[in-house]
Amino acid sequence: MIHESLRINKILDLKKWKRLQDSLATVTKLAILTVDYKGIPVTSHSSCQSFCQNVRKDPELLPYCQKCDSRGGLEAVRLNAPYVYLCHFNIVDIAIPITVDDKYLGAVMAGQVKLSDPENGHDLEQIVTSKNKSLHLLKENDLKAHYDNIPTMTYEEVVKISNMLFLLCNYIIEEALNKNLLVEMFEKASGNDETLNISTILPGYTIKNIESVKKEMTNAIADAYLKNTSNDTSICTNPIFKPAFDYIYNHKSENISLTHMAELCHISSSYFSRLFAKETGENFTSYLAKLKVKWAKQLLEVTDMPISQISDELGFNEPGYFIKTFKKIEAITPAIYRKYYRET
């Protein structure tokens, strides 16, 4: 059975996982690496900072980096939660444990950022300290320009991103595991002469149950990803529109009407329409369509969700209208966009 040989590289399609990892690194501004339960990388780094690249090339310093990865992962497993810590160069790193049924499969290692508000991260543990401080100081001086270019984040941003990655990674692992269970189930059924009977293969489950679970898991992935897209308040600073913008970003799967938005803002529909166009430079319908297409592009890039399901997730009345809207804004269909994105 699948539970007897749980391995992260057997559960995941690592090529697809790497594409997602690259996208997450771009969105979060973090360097990201995935390792197995032994701490051995199963992917290459995504967006590794130049300072860390140079440090890892140094045979005297590489063991410190590897020790940080190993200890960070173990601490995350012990906590069963993201573990934020400082590496041997006082750079912020995060270990995201990946577990299934309390079995540790590996970890997503993220970070390579500095705190813009170090006073808020004073409790962070430096998980590995240098036994050769002069070597570290020399390396840091030699790579000062690279060190100064390491991106900065607030402590709150680091914590929020670590929690998002924890939810997202484990959702995806569970979705992949569920898919593998289905494959195993049908392989077992096809190996004998009996009529397919789900109750004898997976007691307590029906085809409808399993299909429902699969859809819920896919929905969770989309929800976890899109809920963490930031509200771009720079588009409109007029406080009168705040209830509308908050509602749009918190109800991405709804088919939102101008009338409802006007009611939330306690103004008439006609006044809402005129003022919105004045503030944003475009009418409400066009703005909302462009925003939903932006979210659709993100889902096309990082998931294998069918076009019809993305349409449902973003509140379009039916897939045909979604495709038409997407093509009007991007000049290509969603399917071609996904194909082009993954080939580049």
UniProtKB/TrEMBL annotation:
The keyword Transcription applies. Keywords: DNA-binding, Transcription, Transcription regulation. GO terms for molecular function: DNA-binding transcription factor activity; sequence-specific DNA binding. The keyword Metal-binding does not apply. Gene3D superfamilies: Homeodomain-like. SMART domains: HTH_ARAC (SM00342). Residues 242-340 form the HTH araC/xylS-type domain. InterPro entries: Homeodomain-like_sf (IPR009057), HTH_AraC (IPR018060), HTH_AraC-typ_CS (IPR018062), PocR_dom (IPR018771). It holds the Pfam family PocR. It comes from the Bacteria. PANTHER family: ARAC-FAMILY TRANSCRIPTIONAL REGULATOR, HTH-TYPE TRANSCRIPTIONAL REGULATOR EXSA. This is Chemotaxis protein CheY. The lineage of its organism: Bacteria, Bacillati, Bacillota, Bacilli, Bacillales.
